[in-house]
Structures are given as structure tokens and as C-alpha cells.
Design goal:
Strand content: 25-35%
Shape: globular
Radius of gyration: 22 Å
Helix content: 10-25%
Bound molecules: S-adenosylmethionine
CATH class of the largest domain: Alpha Beta
Largest sheet: 9 strands, mixed
Number of strands: 18
């Protein structure tokens, strides 16, 4: 390599830097390219015989022609060795990574995402270890504050943030009042109820059969493609007013009953809190256009990824649990038709 040569592949020097996540993608995808020119030549050999060359420059990390990250001077080096162990899937419309949400978020540029739809752990509701990571509710809420603030940073002005939760306990209410409501850029817009009527039920009181979905916009105005999500009126004519109803149909209310019943093709038996893909598609089509970006930092079984890809949106996301992550890749493959995983 000589000064002025084009850099094609890089490995980041410091795994602790936010940019480290991108390191893993370099080997997987032709869609992700790193462009830049280096000026310095400092070549060293590692213990394992790999050749690395430090670079002094700024490079652009591009995904599908879009600038993802400007990497500052001396943050990376050329890497000429075997591909590192990888846990990421990046194809045309999909960038899903096996990573912690906070380190993944730190790798994303500000104001770059059109829509965030995410479903965090709920704090001691589900009998899985991922829901019991925090000693106290205040520790959990502090963690929520960190990733929520990061989601707002990466969201474009005019973008929307949807967060799933449950009112089985009051934790989600405190998350709304003490976290979401205190972020100055966020404007509260909707509280959507997802209601369903299956599964085990108590006989001692009315069975709780709904989950909650809060929507905030970043700034007062946001995209709402009502033409994408209208549903038919029950009757063609409004009897009281004596006139035809709007032939385009009506906008659904904030109570949704779409389901992913255990007999449906999309149902996956290995994730306890999967969300219906059709419902996610409604959200995505309401607030984005094809080609726009959707982020889910708690990807789980990959439901948001599937809904994004199937509506032609660019999905970005992560999931910490490697077993869920690996299984979700197969589910995504099956339900989106993406072939190469
Ligand atoms: C409520 S579930 C999401 C389910 C998802 N909406 C679906 O449809 O499958 C929360 C997910 O967050 C993951 N998780 C927990 N802590 C995480 C972290 N720090 N970073 C990323 N993912 C995490 C869990 O493993 C779990 O799969």
C-alpha cells in the first residue's frame, strides 16, 4: 500500500470504540464498503502473523450507497488475516447484530434513523434471565433512560419512537413519566393497546389480555401515511349522516387486535414475547416509506426485522442473546425470503 491508495477493508484498533461493531460487517457484505485514503505507513506484524497497517485519515463507511459513519483519524487499521469470528447478518435490507444495545447504539450516527420500534425487557415480568438483570426498579429505569436517550439521538427529527410494554406492574408507567416524558425532544402522541384473546386465563378476575405500546415523535411534526393503513368501514354508507363513507376506508383506532396465534406460520415457539408481524407492518407503513430505516435494539425473534424487510424498509438492529439471535436469523430467512444467511 502506498499513500493515496484506496482502503477497502479495515479492522478497528480498539474493540471498546463505538465503531467496533462495524468491524464485523466488513467480511460479510459487499453492500458495506469503507472508503478513504491513507497517508501514513506504519506496518506491524502481530504474534499470529497478521499484517496490520495503521492509517491516518478519515474514511466513510457506506451501506447501500448511504453514509453510515465517518471514522476519524487513526481509529482503524488495515487488516490482512483470516476473517474474525462474526455474529452479524448484513444483506441488502438487513443489518442485524448480536450485540448489547448500548454499544450498538453508540455505533450509529445521530439523526440517521426514520423509525424506532422496540420492545425492551419489562423488569421482572417474564421468567427469563433477560428480564431479571436489574436488582432494583430504579436501576432498570436508569438503564432505560440510557438507551432511550440514545434512540432519540439516532432518530431523525420528525421520526417516531414506539416502545412496547405492559401495565401488569407500574414499572412501565414510571418509564413513561420519569424517562420518556422528561426527554425534551420527545412529544407524546399515542398509547396503543394490542388486545388478544387466547392463552391461559384466570377465573378469579377479568383476564388481562392486552399489551401496551407508547408512541412519541421527535419534535412536533411527524410522517403519518394514513393512505397505507386505512381499513374498510363496516358499512359503505353512514346511516345517520345519510352519505357514503370515505371509499379509502377509515384510520384504525388505538385499540388493535391483530394476532399471531400459535397456529400461524409466523409463530415461533422459542421466544416468549414475540410481537405480531402484521401489527409491526402497520406501524412501519404508517411512518416510513420504502427505503427508509427502521431500528429495533431488542430484536428477539426478529419480528420487526421481518416486518421491515417485507415492506421494503432498511432494518437495523441488535439482540444480546446469541441463541435467540441465531434462531432469529433462520426465522427471518424463512419469513422474508432472504436467501443468504
Ligand atoms: C421483550 S423481548 C423482544 C421480543 C421481540 N419484540 C420479538 O418480537 O421477538 C426483549 C429482548 O431483549 C433482549 N435483550 C435483553 N437485554 C439486552 C441488551 N442489553 N441489548 C440487546 N438486547 C437485549 C432479550 O434477549 C430479549 O430477546
Amino acid at each position: 500500500m502506498k499513500p493515496g491508495d484506496l482502503i477497502q477493508r479495515v479492522k478497528f484498533l480498539d474493540d471498546a470504540t463505538p465503531m467496533s461493531v462495524w468491524r464485523r460487517e466488513m467480511w460479510k457484505t459487499p453492500a458495506l464498503i469503507v472508503r478513504g485514503r491513507y497517508e501514513g505507513i506504519v506496518t506491524t506484524k502481530t504474534d499470529t502473523g497478521q499484517l496490520t497497517t495503521s492509517v491516518k485519515s478519515v474514511v466513510d463507511v457506506m451501506l447501500n450507497g448511504k453514509l453510515i459513519q465517518k471514522v476519524p483519524i487513526e481509529c482503524f487499521e488495515r487488516y490482512e488475516g483470516p476473517p474474525p469470528e462474526t455474529s452479524s447478518l448484513v444483506t441488502g435490507l438487513l443489518a442485524l447484530i448480536n450485540a448489547d444495545c448500548l454499544s450498538y447504539l453508540a455505533s450509529l450516527p445521530s439523526d440517521s434513523i426514520d423509525l424506532v420500534v422496540t420492545d425492551p425487557p419489562y423488569y421482572r415480568i417474564i421468567g427469563e434471565k433477560w428480564d431479571k438483570q436489574w436488582e432494583t426498579e430504579s436501576g432498570y429505569l436508569e438503564w432505560c433512560r440510557q438507551w432511550t436517550q440514545e434512540c432519540v439521538r439516532v432518530l431523525k427529527p420528525g421520526g417516531c419512537l414506539y416502545v412496547w410494554g405492559t401495565t401488569k406492574t407500574d414499572t412501565f408507567l414510571r418509564y413513561k413519566l420519569d424517562v420518556l416524558n422528561l426527554l425534551p425532544e420527545l412529544i407524546y402522541q399515542n398509547w396503543i393497546i394490542w388486545a388478544y384473546d387466547w392463552g391461559g386465563r384466570t377465573k378469579k378476575k377479568f383476564p388481562r389480555k392486552h399489551e401496551d405500546l407508547l408512541m412519541y415523535s421527535k419534535g412536533p411534526t411527524f410522517k403519518f401515511n394514513d393512505h397505507n393503513i386505512r381499513i374498510p368501514y363496516k358499512m359503505a354508507k353512514n346511516v345517520r349522516a345519510g352519505k357514503e363513507n370515505d371509499s379509502r376506508g377509515k384510520i384504525p383506532t388505538d385499540v388493535w387486535t391483530m394476532n399471531n396465534h400459535t397456529t400461524s406460520k409466523e409463530y415461533c415457539p422459542w421466544h416468549p414475547t414475540q410481537k405480531p408481524i402484521k401489527l409491526l407492518q402497520r406501524i412501519i407503513e404508517a411512518h416510513t416509506d420504502p427505503g427508509d430505516s427502521v431500528l429495533d435494539i431488542f430484536s428477539g425473534s426478529g419480528s420487526t426485522a421481518i416486518a421491515s424487510v417485507n415492506t421494503g424498509r432498511q432494518f437495523f438492529g441488535c439482540e444480546l442473546d446469541s441463541s435467540y439471535y441465531e434462531k432469529s436469523l433462520l426465522r427471518i430467512q424463512e419469513l422474508t425470503g432472504i436467501k443468504k444467511i
